[in-house]
Design a protein that fits this description.
The protein is α+β, with helices and mostly antiparallel strands. It has a single domain, classed as 3-Layer(aba) Sandwich (Aminopeptidase). The chain is 16% helix and 38% strand. It has helices at 13-20, 88-102, 118-122; strands at 3-8, 41-47, 50-64, 67-79, 108-112, 127-128, 133-137, 140-143, 148-152, 163-164. Strands 1, 2, 3, 4, 5, 6, 7, 8, 9 and 10 form a 10-stranded mixed β-sheet that branches. Strand 3 (50-64) and strand 4 form a beta hairpin. The protein is globular, with a radius of gyration of 16 Å. It binds coenzyme A (COA).
Length: 170
């Protein structure tokens, strides 16, 4: 198997269909009825010439106890079912983390995930934000109903401080 990672600004409809159209509610978040923000950049992992895994990213300034911190938001992490459990998402997540740290030079990665995915991201070095994270929705601010995880690239201790997203989640 030959794996190649490509970076694109947007996904084509066939790519979206292949990556996200293989099941109902593949991210398990539809019942939450949240409004989501689209990503600025996409990494596609091609395996034997086909796009099989995806990670979307965006750059955004959050506040932590009122201090502005630029983070790299990560979302839309997926591997098509036929290619799962081969380490492809892990490979793409590691590539993305290196890009965020060394190319975008943000302070940390930040993602939203279901509780059952916490262990998966912890194994990749991510940490759960213990304090509530305030997110924006069309009707106003609310505490994120989904766990939030960060991958700090510096050692600042900000995980238990007041985190405000100032954005829809991603
Ligand atoms: C989660 C997902 C991206 C993993 O992709 P992948 O390429 O198979 O991932 P990897 O091969 O790098 O890692 C597979 C590991 O993830 C674990 N995993 C996959 N889905 C999981 C889940 N829902 N809960 C807990 N662990 C899970 C597998 O058990 C496996 O663990 P192992 O290596 O110890 O056997 C893929 O299962 C997927 O697309 N799921 C649907 C979309 C989704 O839930 N995305 C995450 C949103 S936060």
């Amino acid at each position: 198997m030959v794996a190649v990672i490509r970076q694109v600004n947007s996904l084509t409809n066939p790519e979206k269909q292949r990556l996200f159209g293989w099941g109902e509610n593949i991210f398990g978040v539809e019942t939450l009825n949240l409004s989501w923000r689209s990503k600025d950049l996409h990494f596609l992992l091609y395996s034997d010439g086909e796009p099989t895994s995806h990670v979307g990213i965006l750059k955004h300034v959050i506040t932590v106890d009122g201090e502005s911190i630029t983070v790299g938001g990560i979302g839309g992490v997926v591997t098509v079912p036929t290619a799962q459990k081969k380490g492809l998402a892990r490979q793409l997540m590691q590539h993305t983390a290196e890009f965020l740290e060394h190319e975008w030079k943000v302070a940390a990665g930040l993602l939203f995930c279901l509780p059952e995915m916490l262990a998966y991201y912890e194994a990749l070095g991510w940490q759960r934000v213990e304090s509530p994270v305030l997110i924006e929705q069309p009707e106003g601010k609310l505490a994120s109903p989904l766990p939030v995880m960060v991958l700090p690239f510096h050692t600042e201790e900000w995980l238990n401080r007041r985190v405000e997203l100032h954005s829809l989640p991603w």
